C-alpha cells in the first residue's frame, strides 16, 4: 500500500492527461529495470566468455575454439563476429544464434563451437556484437588471432629468443672474470659502468613496476584494453641480473687497481641530468600530477638514451690508449651473438606473420639492436686489427707486474 501511494502522488503531480500517464509508466518501467530486474538478469544470460583470448593458426588452416554461455536467455539473441582484418582471418559461420527460453536456467552452461580460418599471415582482433543491442555485456569478449606461414619458423624464433636471452645474461661475466684474474680494472671505462648501472636500474624499475604492481597494470589495461602485459618474468630477471652483475663489476673497481681512472665530468653531468629528470618525475607522481605508468615510460626512455651513448666512452678510451687490454672481448662476442639473433628473430617473425610494418615501424628496437652490432664490430676491429700489437705488449707488462 505504501508503494502504491507513492506512485499515485508522483503521477498526480504530472496530471491526468494521456501524456502524463505515459510519462508515469515509463518512469515506473525504468525503476523496475534499475532496482528490480537489472539488464543481464532481464535477458537471463549471466556471462559469456571465450575459452582462449589468443589463437595461433596457419595459413589455410581451420581452427576450432569455443564460446561458453552461462545462463539461458529469455529472448532470442544473435551474436555477430566483428573482424579487424577480414583479409587475414575469416569465420565460415560469422553469427551465433542463442534461442529464447520461457523458463531460463540461470546456471546452465552452454558451449558454442566457432571455427576460424586463416586466410593470410598477420594479426587481427575479433570482437562480438549482440542483437538486440545491450542484450549482454560483450566488452570483455574478444580474441587476438595470429595467422602464420610456418609453425617451424615460430619454434625456431622461440628458441632464438632464449638463446639471445642467455647470451646477453652471460655476457657480463667475462669482464668480471678478467678483472678478477688481473686484479685490475685498468682499461675498463668507468663512464661505461656508471651509465650501465643507471640504465639497468631504470630498466629494472620499468619491468618490476609493470610486472608486480596491480595498480600500474590496471593503468596499462585501461589505456590498452585488449593488450597483454608487455613485461614477462624473463624481462624482470634479465634487468635485475644485469644490474646485479654491473654492481659486482663496480665493486671490483673499488677493490682492484684502477690507477687514476674515475667517472669523467661529462659522464657526471649526463648522469646528473638523468637523475634530475627521475626526481622531478617522482615528485610529479607523488603529487598526483603524473601517472605512475608514465613515470615508468620515462624510465624506459632514459634506458634507451643510455644504450645509444654508453659504448662511446669505452671506444674512445681504447683509441686513446691504443689498446683494449682490460676490456673483455668475450663480453663483445656474446653481446654480438645476442644482438644478431635478436634482429634475426625480428626478421623471421616479420616474414612469418607478414608484419614488416612492425619490423621497420619499431625504429627504436631495430635501431638500438643495429647500433649495438655496429659498436660490437668496431670493438672487435679495435681488438684484433687496430691495436693488436699494443694489446700483446700491454698484456705482457701486466702479467710480469
UniProtKB/TrEMBL annotation:
List the GO cellular component terms.
lysosomal membrane; phagocytic vesicle
Instruction: Quickly give the catalysed reaction.
Output: L-cystine(out) + H(+)(out) = L-cystine(in) + H(+)(in)
Q: Does the keyword Transmembrane helix apply?
A: yes
| Keyword entries, A-Z | Glycoprotein, Lysosome, Membrane, Repeat, Symport, Transmembrane, Transmembrane helix, Transport
Q: What is its main location?
A: cytoplasm
Q: Which GO terms describe its molecular function?
A: L-cystine transmembrane transporter activity; symporter activity
Which InterPro entries does the UniProt record give?
LC_transporter (IPR005282), PQ-loop_rpt (IPR006603)
Entry membrane topology:
Multi-pass membrane protein
Its subcellular locations are: Cytoplasmic vesicle, Phagosome; Lysosome membrane
The membrane-spanning stretches of this chain are 28-45, 152-173, 185-206, 236-256, 268-286, 292-312, 324-346, 366-387
Keyword presence, Transmembrane: yes
Family classification = Belongs to the cystinosin family.
What exactly does this protein do? Cystine/H(+) symporter that mediates export of cystine, the oxidized dimer of cysteine, from lysosomes. May play a role in the degradation of engulfed apoptotic cells.
Protein name per the record = Cystinosin homolog
